[in-house]
Write a structure and sequence with these properties.
mainly beta; membrane; transmembrane helix; Extracellular repeat, HAF family
Length: 414
């Protein structure tokens, strides 16, 4: 049986060289994710930093409802028609799912990946691979119907979307990374140099980073507001909830571990509570996503920091452990590696993969559900669910086709 470390190596092996044929995973996305997660655990350039495109799932899930009422974020009043989907009533976790390919625009071919969507399950976004270069046409599926979006630059990607159909994303140009907002069929470049955006809420408030420091845009036309970090700190905001709570990661001096961070709607910031395992402190940790008070992230829970107070002399783990915070109850849930965890919904359920990538996976109510693969597909790493709707009925991601290509797919569960 493949170990966790071997799984990480297998997942990253396509990054070592140009693939001879169609890539089995979204290689460009993995490379970009590694670059964007260079603060994670203070392990820049390591396998752990690259694999942080997803987080580890396993063990039992704690499902506790998040009941506080959303309040407007300073500088970002609620907009008419943008309140978003209501939090679904608690329901039993799905126990059966079906898979379907997402249709491709004419002339695009089939090689593709769905990398996210909105909380309602109506919208899914991703990109296709019609050529061998770094130009990846973007696709948004609206109730399963695709249309393309032309974003300037290379390595184009969307990263998040709200239920109004407003998406955010990034690309690379001659001057570095550029960030974009997609609204009403049009792309707008966000203000800020060397910027990256990772989260948007129903009010259209956007979070990410500018020059490697956490930032927030109150709207697509606003200047970025830099979030408070300790003196000399760097990092990124990775997600924003409907009440304006922002989460992410902050790193102090070079070589020191990253720390998970939380910013309230009033702008104040603090470290997310650090878990311990067997009485030992974490070496480093960060938050990657938030939804309805549920936060997921990853940490190195292997023991105390190496000599010198940081991880510079410690062996980089192939994976960390999944940390799940419930901001309402204060409960911290730590689970062990079983696969990747990418997103969390309003029920506290997590989408990713399971069985070392052989199946897309759903972790809900203490049960891990392996999602079906495409019929006749080879048994290999690359089946991943990147997004789950709030009610748990719709997941989307990538699945391996019988010819070995990755294809954008959707799972309908009940």
């Amino acid at each position: 049986m493949e170990s966790d470390e071997e799984y990480g190596v297998s997942l990253l092996r396509p990054l070592d060289r140009e693939p001879a044929g169609p890539p089995a995973i979204d290689v460009a996305r993995a490379i970009a994710a590694g670059r964007r997660r260079r603060f994670a655990l203070g392990l820049a350039g390591s396998a752990a930093a690259v694999v942080a495109v997803g987080l580890v799932v396993g063990g039992s899930a704690l499902v506790v409802r998040h009941d506080h009422t959303p309040a407007p974020l300073a500088g970002a009043p609620a907009r008419a028609g943008s309140s978003g989907p209501s939090t679904p009533a608690a329901a039993p976790a799905p126990n059966s799912c079906t898979i379907a390919r997402l249709p491709m625009p004419a002339g695009q071919g089939t090689e593709s990946v769905a990398t996210g969507g909105d909380p309602s399950g109506r919208y899914v976004f991703g990109r296709s691979y019609p050529t061998g270069d770094d130009n990846h046409p973007l696709i948004i599926w609206d109730n399963g119907q695709p249309h393309t979006v032309a974003m300037s630059g290379t390595d184009q990607n969307f990263t998040d979307m709200n239920s109004a159909g407003e998406a955010i994303g990034n690309s690379f140009g001659s001057s570095g990374e550029m960030s974009w907002a997609y609204q009403n069929g049009r792309l707008t470049r966000l203000a800020g140099s060397n910027s990256e955006v990772l989260g948007i809420n129903e009010r259209g408030v956007i979070v990410g980073s500018v020059d490697e420091k956490p930032a927030m845009w109150s709207s697509a036309s606003a200047q970025p507001t830099m979030l408070v970090v300790p003196a000399g700190g760097t990092g990124s905001a990775t997600g924003i909830d409907e009440d304006g709570t922002i989460v992410g990661r902050v790193q102090g001096a070079p070589g020191t571990p990253a720390l998970g961070y939380e910013w309230s709607a009033d702008g104040t910031g603090k470290e997310l509570p650090a878990p311990t395992v067997n009485g030992k402190p974490v070496n480093g940790y960060f938050a990657s996503a938030i939804r309805d008070g549920w936060v997921i992230g990853m940490g190195d829970l292997s023991g105390a920091p190496a000599a010198g107070g940081n991880n510079s002399g410690a062996k980089a783990p192939a994976y960390g452990d999944l940390i799940r915070w419930n901001l309402t109850t204060g409960k911290i849930d730590v689970t062990k590696p079983q696969g990747l965890a990418v997103s969390v919904n309003a029920q506290g359920w997590i989408a990713g993969d399971t069985d070392k990538g052989k199946h897309a996976g759903l972790l809900a109510d203490g049960k891990e559900l392996a999602l079906p693969n495409l019929a006749g597909a080879p048994d290999q790493i690359a089946n991943i669910a990147y997004v789950i709707s709030d009610d748990g009925s719709t997941l989307a991601g990538q699945a391996v086709a019988p010819n070995g290509e990755q294809e954008a797919a959707v799972w309908h569960c009940h």
